[in-house]
Amino acid sequence: SPKKAKKKIEGGSNVFSMFEQTQIQEFKEAFTIMDQNRDGFIDKADLRDTFAALGRLNVKNEELEDMVKEAPGPINFTVFLTMFGEKLKGTDPEETILNAFKIFDPEGKGRIKADYIKEMLMTQADRFSQEEINQMFAAFPPDVSGNLDYKNLCYVITHGEEKD
Length: 164
Known about the structure:
The chain has 164 residues and is mainly alpha-helical. Helix content is 58%, strand content 4%. The chain has helices spanning 2-11, 21-34, 44-53, 61-69, 77-88, 93-102, 114-123, 130-139, 150-159, and strands at 111-113, 147-149. The protein has a two-stranded antiparallel ribbon.
């Protein structure tokens, strides 16, 4: 009954008030991408498929189990949002952005191949246009080896460029 549904929402967590509507929409898009089998829950198989889509194969089963164990139960969208809320609480914007880039840099080198990040930005989630890619690389050109220094990029995004 509608009365019961309303009660359930009121009794639920207040996690949706932690984020702006646009942020919730972005988290929903990320959740949908990660929910590879479209069952409304993220499980180990979904995580393995997500890592594979990002080019990281052979993820250890223990690593996936540890991720799933961070949740208090099955990971639906509300649980997903709550977990992100807890992870982001107290983090500064630079740390949040760095953590996003670290997904593409499992060795933690602080650099990502420019071609790789371009491909990811143009083919995944909220896709970048060629123009947006050109703007990014104009502002943050890759080094001579074709790597993007994302640590510097994150610093400049969050602190503004250092003026001499």
